[in-house]
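Students often ask why inverse folding is considered easier than folding. One informal answer: many sequences map to the same fold, so there is more than one right answer. In these notes we will look at a single instance of the problem. The structure comes first.
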């Protein structure tokens, strides 16, 4: 992930330098385009990483009335009124009928294919805020990974299906020493 973002950042810097030669207006336009491109790349990586480890891998839902799911399909099923249903975004986002090559980290997948935040009338109200905050965090954090090693937490604490605490430790990489014997 760091390599992909580093490549995107280098391309954005090259575009910005090229724009400097063409004048201030072009420079500003290039800088805006480069930032937008970087944001889209980070968001694509974030969504795909979430596909493998969603915040809510399984959700319990109450069904107040009789419902038919996938009525138009031979896989249709009836959910009786008063039932509790287990919905699994983790399973759905790894279903080969919905995601080609589900075992492959495919950051090129269309944004609308992901179901991390639900959709329609049940879409998460914090979707844009959460995505923006994490995208900005990663935009500033990933370049630092060139200088730091990340030591994952020994354990993850859960609050129901949601992660409550996942601590990481950043350890500065040793400084490179000059060539000896020259």
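Output (designed amino acids):
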């Amino acid at each position: 992930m760091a390599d992909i973002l580093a490549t995107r950042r280098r391309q954005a810097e090259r575009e910005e330098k090229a724009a400097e030669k063409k004048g201030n207006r072009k420079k500003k336009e290039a800088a805006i385009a480069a930032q937008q491109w970087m944001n889209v790349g980070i968001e694509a990586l974030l969504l795909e990483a979430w596909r493998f480890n969603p915040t809510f891998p399984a959700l319990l839902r109450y069904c107040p009335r009789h419902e038919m799911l996938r009525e138009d399909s031979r896989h249709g099923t009836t959910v009786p009124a008063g039932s509790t249903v287990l919905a699994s975004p983790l399973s759905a986002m790894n279903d080969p009928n919905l995601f080609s090559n589900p075992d492959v980290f495919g950051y090129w997948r269309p944004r609308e294919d992901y179901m991390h935040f639900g959709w329609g009338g049940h879409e998460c109200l914090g979707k844009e805020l959460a995505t923006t905050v994490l995208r900005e965090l990663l935009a500033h954090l990933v370049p630092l990974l060139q200088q730091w090693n990340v030591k994952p937490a020994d354990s993850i604490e859960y609050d129901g299906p949601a992660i409550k605490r996942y601590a990481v430790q950043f350890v500065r990489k040793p400084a490179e020493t000059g060539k000896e014997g020259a």
